[in-house]
Design brief:
mainly alpha, 2 domains, 0% strand
Length: 86
């Protein structure tokens, strides 16, 4: 069986459409949750910020060992707060 470029392109387009629809649905659910409890948005942003803090500290350390336990504890605390609200 040979692969037809048109068939492959159609399958990719169908997959992209399904993915987009799913992402739109998730975005809608997220907006609805944030409307009900705006603090969840703040918690989500703070959780995402912790990874940026890890990356920043790792880059600043220039390969030297660093203690990230404080950031891990902060992230876990934020995740626990978020879980309690959901």
């Amino acid at each position: 069986m040979t692969f037809d470029g048109k068939l492959f392109a159609a399958a990719r387009a169908e997959h992209a459409a399904k993915l987009s629809t799913h992402q739109d649905s998730l975005d809608g659910k997220r907006r609805q949750i944030y409307r009900k409890d705006p603090e969840l948005r703040t918690l989500d942003r703070a959780i995402r910020q912790t990874i940026l803090d890890v990356i920043g500290q790792a880059m600043a350390s220039r390969g030297e060992p660093i203690d990230l336990s404080h950031l891990q504890a902060k992230n876990q605390q934020l995740q626990a707060e978020r879980a309690a609200k959901l």
